[in-house]
């Protein structure tokens, strides 16, 4: 009995004064917030903003510092002597230091197109994170309803323990006054020990499932945490809202934006440039002295013929879009099959629960009669225990089917995309 009291005391925090009540929706929210993968959304945003800043810097002037010293084997010389001229040939050792500035004036909007592409890539990458996080919901469902099942089984076992304890007190009284054989008391005590063992096992299994759930949520969940059985509405008429569908659309948008970048790559590029320098010789090659100099101008670069590369790149993008379309169609097909399987499971467990109610009603009537027979010494404790076990096995089956029904509904909503 001391061991039984310890077990019951261990369940008091769980059943009477739970520190925390957790719902399925709260588990989803906690996972989306705390799971390590969730950090990628903000990191991707930061990364893209940095890349866009780098692209914008293409509009700023570029400055280059250049310096060189050379010695050459030959220089320009005049073949004829000019009268009254003191022109000397350039020195074979020459020196030059310059600062070159280039300023982009026009590039056909290529920077803006690349910025839009980066934004489209960010949306796609963040949606991929959302898809990966959404897949956690199925894992959460499995662990959540496992904990819930063990939680409800513990309640049934404790209820069974109370029933068994009441019968044991009655038998103890009968043994005391010689109305019942001692063997009946021993049978009930053995069953009581077996029940204590079952309660202990359920307790450990629940703790294990709760730890797995806690890992997914990045939360500390102790055994005082109580889960609620959600009331989930299944609506087959609602269209699928899976995040993968939005991901496919964003991938197509990204590919279409990349075609714009490809087109912009063939636009003319106009630059302004300036150079300031100091060297020997300077711009005047006939003056063998150190001079400062400068020059300014504009230059145009335009690749007017690329051998069809732009066209082929766009064709490759179009093929990629077709691949995305085929992946979307495949996903929708598989998703529809999963929905039908989930709907079948829901119908199955609903029908089983109807039978469970009938079975329990009959088992309760049988146990009531058996209890009366035990109290009057008509049957043995073993016969009573058989019927008690039959009743609680039926109740546990009913509870199992209730949890399985809720799990099937939760899985259906995840498959359908109803938990976005």
From TrEMBL:
Keywords: Cell outer membrane, Coiled coil, Membrane, Signal, Transmembrane, Transmembrane beta strand, Transport. SUPFAM superfamilies: Outer membrane efflux proteins (OEP). GO terms for molecular function: efflux transmembrane transporter activity; porin activity. InterPro entries: OMP_efflux (IPR003423), TolC-like (IPR051906). Residues 1-18 form the signal peptide. Gene3D superfamilies: Outer membrane efflux proteins (OEP). The keyword Transmembrane applies. It holds the Pfam family OEP. It is found in: Cell outer membrane. This is TolC family protein.
